[in-house]
Amino acid sequence: MNDKKKINLRQASVPIMFIIICIFCIPLSGLSPKMLINEIITRMGRNAFLILSLLIPIMAGMGLNFGMTLGAMAAEIALILVCDWQIVGVPGMVLAAIISVPISVLLGIFCGKILNRAKGREMITSYIMAFFINGIYQIVVLYLMGKVIPIKHSSIKLPRGYGIRNTVSLLSMRQKLDNMLAINVAGVKIPLLTFIIIAIMCLVIVWFRRTKLGQDMRAVGQDMEVARDAGINVERTRIISIVISTVLAGFGMIIYLQNMGNIATYTAHSQIGMFCIAALLVGGASVDKASIGNVFLGVVLFHTMFIVAPRAGAYITGDSMIGEYFRVFVSYAVITVALIMYETNKRKAKSAASMKLKEAQDEE
Amino acid sequence: MDRNSAPLLTMQGIKKDFFGNQVLEDINLELRPGEVLGLCGENGAGKSTLMKILFGAADIAETGGYEGDIFLDGQKVSFQTPFEAIAAGIGMVHQEFSLIPGFDATENILLNREPEKHNYVSEIFGDRLNTLDRSEMDTRAKNAIEKMGVEIDRHMMINTMPVGHKQFTEIARELSKEQLRLLILDEPTAVLTEREAASLLDSIRGMSERGISVIFITHRLQEVLSVCDTVAVMRDGVLVECVPAAETSVAAITKSMVGRSVGTSQKREIKNSDGAKTILKIDRLWVDMPGETVRDVSLEVKEGEILGIGGLAGQGKLGIPNGVMGLYEAGGTVEFDGKVIPLGSPRECLDSSFAFVSEDRRGVGLLLDESLEWNVAFPAMQIQNKFLKKYLGGLIKWRDEKAIREVTEKYINELQIKCTSSKQRAKELSGGNQQKVCLAKAFALEPKLLFVSEPTRGIDVGAKALVLDALRKFNRENGVTVVMVSSELEELRMTCDRIAIVSGGRISGILPADSSTEEFGTMMLSGVV
């Protein structure tokens, strides 16, 4: 029993560290509670869906899927097309979601197949692969769009006649989802529809865990060899988990971008994977275990720090760049620390098993 | 069991060779419904290979299949995969657990055979999105556990279970398969406590009454006699005996297990080192080596002798040298020549002039992509600064290529290593020659004490004799103390002066090498866990 508590405390150490940082920074930032809560609610609606997309590959034992960037790129391509076709508002978003699915599925299958050849090194492989696919994305957006894929509107095209501008305005969709059914509680705007969608997604994940496929993924995630011996198609199951994650990341990216109101064509996706993974880890998840609770705790803590740190930094040093630097630094540090802790815990567990042998001998 | 009923399983003239190395010769076996067959034999006798053939294991087909016929219910069968064997009603519980650690017993019992419920989503996206029928799973698991007759908590997580319950979970999984008619149990009692083992034997009797045939592989002969109808003994790939259990005894089985035809072990001098000083003293050693756990081993090695360490696989004999050399986590004290050697530090061991020839030839033993010269000279160069030319008062050290070539060629001649030149890469050599390179490497260190682990594993007869001769010669001529670990009792008896037998992670006794095989056999089986 005591052992169990100790392990829980160790797992909780990252969230606790962040709670302390937040408590320290909030008063320094000078933000009013209302503003702070408003910001946190907005960011939760913006990001939670994206982070939820990470849960299924973790269940299948594939670690933190940096390949979610692939889904984000699929969503961006879909949104650019829908933007050009001038389909506005929520219908435009639904259409973009539909268009993004086949692209996400294709990229997901490709990613899954490669990760099957790199078992045990999924994280670094998917991370590097995201760079590779980013190159292909740039060819599509910078060259093919306008040359091969017809783009009518010059407002999103580069002046030379092909390629997409650095920023594509999504004014026609901006916060359309968030504003639908939005309610105002004591001056805090709550985007109810977005939250309903996120809640439905959570229910789907809970339901998914109880399906045959979910059970197979958990089995594959814990021991591939045993699962294979039991007749589960391990490779296929792993590919499906990545495809689901990529498709969901695409939907998440659409929700994210409608909130932002514009697409930074060449950079929007590049940081997304890193920040989502950092947020999930801040929420107390590890490489092999993550829950819906981790997602929400992580979103709140990570973004609170994101909001208050630059201001607190500006207050202390008089330079807002320091705070900006601090939050980027922290998100990388979190990932590093979480990965190191994961390895140490594994080693400690092994060493504890050896000690038992010694104790058994001493008792005799 | 009905002696007159038609046999459930008939194996006729089963032969199998791995690349010309005959491991099974003409095995004939019959099993009736409800019969319990005890299969005994030393490690390497061919028990596992025979069961793999029956169960359709992948490595049998990959190595060219087998000869002979297997009939199940009078129908000729030849399983290409375990799944075909399972469909035909054969179940097998392996020595290693095949369980998902984070699942409870119920989930493991019904792994990938879960009862499912349809829903709207699965109508569209396929059956894998059916939800699991938890209550039906629970009922089925409960029935399977009841069938087994041993009570286990079906909601307990596997990783919190005692090993015995894991074993029972595996058996329950086989029993939950409706079509099961023949169950193969590969050393199921190895991990059980005495009480658990007794309840397992009860449950085997229960299965037999229900008409399920059981093939029971074990080293605990008492269990064989108490539960089996028939006892089959294998030795060196031959079925030497197949008699009703009522007509045999532990002594008789032991004898046919280890006894070899007279005349194989020639007379030779055995050195008596009783008077010599103790060079290595191991006290209360424990080693956490997976599958070869050592518990509380105390052992003294005399200067100048060859000490053999024997015993069945998995009993801990390999753990002893690996633990002393610091390759696995270990505790206890090791004293060499009056000096205490810290555990967990291979460098200290090498500095105290130990050398170790690992059983993991390709992993630990060799630099596979490097030349023979490098392989032979590398440790000596690294540890003892041999084969180096010093310049500027030792500030710069260069490899002495000429000395390296000379020493390598010396060992190539002495050990008759078959190679194109001393520059050939180690991975291009055959297993036997690789083993000789490993020995040469250890010899080049000129150690005072040499650990050799499984020196003849996987090499052919000619190379075997040469390797053993080289070891003996190295010992007798250079006065180096040798500790040799091997699964083959016969080769220990041919090479060593004294032989310690390890059983259940402990030393069960030390005998002079010329003691009878029966004595060794009894000792090997005494404390088996």
Give the percentage of residues in beta strands of chain B: 25-35%
Biggest interface, CB < 8 A: A-B, 26 and 29 residues
CATH architecture of the largest domain in chain B: 3-Layer(aba) Sandwich
Unreliable stretches of chain B, pLDDT < 50, 5 or more residues? 261-265
Q: Quick check: average pLDDT of chain B?
A: 85
Helix vs. strand class of chain A: mainly alpha
| Rg value of chain B | 26 Å
Distance between the termini of chain A: 25 Å
Describe the global form of chain B: globular
Average predicted confidence as pLDDT of chain A? 87
Shape of chain A: globular
The overall strand count of chain B is 24
Portion of residues within helices of chain A: over 70%
Question: Helix share of residues of chain B?
Answer: 25-40%
Order of helices and strands of chain A: HHHHHHEHEEHHHHEHHH
Describe the main β-sheet of chain A briefly: 2 strands, antiparallel
Task: Give an overview of the whole structure.
The complex is a heterodimer of chains A (364) and B (529). Chain A is mainly alpha-helical and 364 residues long. Chain A has a single domain, classed as ABC transporter involved in vitamin B12 uptake, BtuC (Orthogonal Bundle). Chain A contains 14 helices and four strands. In chain A, the strands form two sheets. Chain A has a two-stranded antiparallel sheet with strand order 1-4. Chain A has a two-stranded antiparallel ribbon with strand order 2-3. In chain A, a hairpin with a 2-residue loop joins strand 2 and strand 3. In chain A, helix 1 runs parallel beside helix 13, helix 9 crosses helix 11 and helix 13 packs across helix 14. Chain A is globular. By secondary structure, chain B is an alpha/beta fold. Chain B has four domains: 175 residues, Rossmann fold; 80 residues, no CATH class; 161 residues, 3-Layer(aba) Sandwich (Rossmann fold); 82 residues, no CATH class. Helix content of chain B is 35%, strand content 26%. In chain B, strands 6-9-10-3-11-12 form a six-stranded mixed sheet, with helices on both faces. A six-stranded mixed sheet of chain B has the order 18-21-22-15-23-24. In chain B, strands 2-1-4-5 form a four-stranded antiparallel sheet, covered by helices on one side. In chain B, a hairpin with a 2-residue loop joins strand 16 and strand 17. Chain B is globular, with a radius of gyration of 26 Å. The two termini of chain B are 30 Å apart. The chains are: A mainly alpha (364), B alpha/beta (529). Chains A and B meet through helix 9, helix 10 and helix 14 of A and strand 8 of B.
